[in-house]
Design a protein that fits this description.
The protein is of the alpha/beta class. Helix content is about 35%, strand content about 20%. The protein is built from eleven helices and nine strands. Helix 2 crosses helix 4, helix 4 packs across helix 5 and helix 6 crosses helix 7.
């Protein structure tokens, strides 16, 4: 594969053409107020994992519509005082998986909260959270579920779950609420962008090759799934493109980036056709907090930096969380 997107010098100044809805803030304020009308009801049940270096809790909390969402809380063994926390969101098609797959951040001395992804978790990592909300006809996958109206779109539910996940993590007595970071790769990175714009008192944000950014460019510059799901939907439902674009504008990471207040470490890969680098740079360039950096992996596809990006995060994040 070769570079297919804009040259790097153009990426560094690229701006998205995504149009922000006039009622963007009101839409999200009302959505979150509605969710907070339900008790958070965060429950943490100890789990025997056979691991001696960490303590794990099976988490259930109320997300969108008060509906139950699962997660894991992983703490270093013997934790007695509140720790800074890393809240993580999962990539497309995956779920929270099994506890022993989440050891990185607890090994670094942090509380690690992993949110399950409603309705997903049967692609590459198992999940345990249903999405009980129906929608009209959609293309297989999650990108077009309820896509003709912002109020019914799947990602309204998922982004709301993510904000509530931060609140659930912060409710645990061994989590320092004032030192909370959010992270995730691909879809998890896109969710991270949304939370960065919706939760104003985060300590740090680390979106890795983020998805769900700069929809106007993404759905026309790449033919790779999951963005391709939107094109396939519109191929069948002719004449609905403007309605779909309007819905997507409420969920575009570019607009959440413009509201972010926490330091951020992004990553992108110049051969990434799943989350094209221009769409990542669109969010990075719109990111409002000036304390931001982006790692660029010249010859990688959607795997991005992989363990090299994790190493970069391990160098960067402690400075923001242990101050």
């Amino acid at each position: 594969m070769t570079w297919f997107d804009l040259p790097l010098d153009e990426l560094r100044v690229y701006r998205s053409a995504s149009r922000e809805p006039g009622d963007f803030d009101a839409f999200w304020s009302e959505t979150l107020d509605e969710a907070r009308g339900h008790a958070l009801d965060a429950r943490f049940e100890p789990v025997a994992t056979g691991l001696s270096t960490v303590e794990t809790y099976d988490v259930t909390f109320a997300g969108f519509g008060g509906q139950p969402v699962k997660g894991w809380l992983v703490l270093p063994s013997g934790t007695t005082e509140p720790l800074p926390a890393v809240v993580e969101f999962i990539g497309y098609g995956g779920g929270r998986s099994l506890p022993h797959t989440h050891l990185l951040w607890a090994s670094a001395g942090f509380a690690h909260f992993v949110m399950d992804t409603r309705g997903q978790g049967s692609g590459w990592a198992p999940g345990d959270t249903a999405d009980p909300v129906g929608s009209g006809p959609s293309f297989p996958g999650f990108m077009t579920r309820g896509i003709e109206d912002p109020s019914t779109y799947y990602y309204r539910r998922l982004y709301t779950d993510a904000v509530r996940a931060v609140e659930a993590a912060r409710s645990h007595p061994l989590v320092d609420a004032a030192r909370t970071a959010v992270t995730g790769g691909s879809q998890g990175g896109g969710i991270t962008m949304a939370v960065a714009g919706l939760v104003r008192d985060l300590a740090a944000v680390a979106p890795d090759v983020p998805f769900l950014c700069d929809f106007p460019r993404a759905i026309t510059v790449t033919d790779r799934a999951p963005y391709r799901e939107i094109g396939d939907y519109l191929k069948t439902h002719r004449g609905r493109a403007e309605r779909v674009r309007n819905t997507l504008s409420y969920f575009d990471g570019v607009h959440f980036a413009a509201r972010a207040t926490a330091p951020a470490l992004f990553s992108t890969a110049l051969e990434d056709q799943t989350c094209p680098p221009s769409t990542v740079f669109a969010a990075f360039n719109a990111y409002a907090e000036p304390d931001k950096a982006i790692e660029v992996y010249d010859f990688n596809d959607h795997e991005g930096g992989g363990p090299f990006q994790q190493a970069a995060q391990l160098r960067w994040l402690p400075e923001r969380l242990r101050g």
